[in-house]
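Project outcomes to date are best conveyed with an example. Our students and postdoctoral researchers have been running inverse folding experiments weekly, and each run begins with a structure described purely in tokens. The record below, which covers 315 residues, was selected by the lab manager from last quarter's runs and is presented without edits.
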């Protein structure tokens, strides 16, 4: 695959595959979107999806959400299905539910949301947790939600127990827990070892690799799916590379932009099921989907990628 500038690549793929059925394998720049099986079931999930924190959440709070409609359209037109949200992301879940139902694509998305009514590490009121979950069902207008996770390990015994009930009732397909705080990693490891989780959600990026030591190997051993959040270190990695050109050897794993370089590092780890970078711009969504196209770096190349990034000045 030849190397493109970000502008050239976006122009090339702008109209690709919009006419194909959303439940089939679709193409980006004439290439198939990579999927990985969810460990608990083998169900295939596109390896790059859409998150709804950060700039997505900011736009969701405004009156004009046209940009978010275009992001969703780009996601599904290019073969994506995974959308990750949370009641804790401001208006994101409510606005997204309205948009996808107006677009009539709600049933074609893998909808992942969260629950957490615990405050500052305190106990969660079970009734409040159930109300929050029911609000999520009302927003997506579906009888079954694909994935609900306990957000940032908030009172896991109480809230995960509710999710277990909902899964047994057939209202939730998969359950799990998340944390974006490294000080909670020991607690996460303990929960992974004792609870029947389908998924965890953690931060993982080429310059943030703490989870590689224990959490990712344990997820693989325990057959727990992994959603990797903040694959760009939020904006840190883009600021770190600045205006540097991609290294020439990035073409060996079909990365044509820095976004694809960062995403391909994350999803090439065998324990990672998918990653969900947030964006409020369709052009960035299109670029991100390109991270799930073509070849992925092997282990030797992953080491080369980390060495390259680690040698850059921190920001």
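After processing, the design step wrote out the following sequence:
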């Amino acid at each position: 695959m030849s190397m493109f500038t970000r502008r050239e690549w976006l122009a090339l793929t702008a109209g690709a595959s919009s006419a194909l059925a959303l439940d089939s394998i679709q193409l980006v720049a004439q290439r198939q979107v990579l999927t990985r099986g969810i460990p608990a079931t083998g169900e295939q999930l596109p390896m790059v999806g859409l998150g709804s924190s950060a700039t997505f959440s900011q736009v969701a709070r405004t009156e004009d959400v046209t940009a978010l409609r275009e992001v969703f359209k780009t996601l599904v037109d290019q073969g994506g299905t995974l959308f990750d949200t949370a009641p804790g992301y401001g208006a994101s879940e409510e606005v997204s539910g309205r948009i996808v139902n107006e677009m009539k694509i709600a049933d074609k998305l893998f909808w992942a949301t969260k629950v957490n009514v615990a405050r500052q590490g305190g106990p969660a009121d079970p009734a409040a947790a159930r109300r929050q979950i029911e609000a999520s069902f009302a927003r997506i207008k579906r009888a079954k939600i694909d994935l609900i996770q306990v957000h940032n390990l908030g009172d896991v015994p109480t809230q995960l127990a509710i999710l277990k009930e909902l899964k047994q009732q057939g209202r939730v397909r998969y359950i799990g827990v998340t944390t974006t705080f490294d000080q909670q990693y020991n607690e996460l490891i303990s929960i992974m070892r004792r609870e029947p989780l389908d998924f965890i959600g953690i931060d993982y990026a080429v310059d943030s690799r703490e989870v590689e030591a224990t959490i990712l190997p344990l997820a693989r051993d325990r057959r727990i799916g992994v959603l990797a959040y903040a694959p760009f270190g939020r904006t840190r990695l883009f600021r770190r590379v600045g205006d540097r050109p991609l290294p020439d050897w990035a073409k060996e794993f079909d990365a044509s932009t820095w976004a694809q370089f960062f995403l391909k590092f994350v999803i090439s780890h065998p324990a990672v099921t998918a990653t969900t970078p947030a964006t409020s711009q369709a052009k960035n969504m299109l670029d991100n989907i390109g991270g799930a196209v073509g070849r992925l770096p092997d282990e030797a190349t992953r080491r080369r990628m980390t060495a390259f990034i680690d040698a850059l000045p921190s920001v």
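Confidence is low (pLDDT under 50) at residues 1-30. DSSP finds twelve helices and twelve strands in the chain. The training component of this project remains on track.
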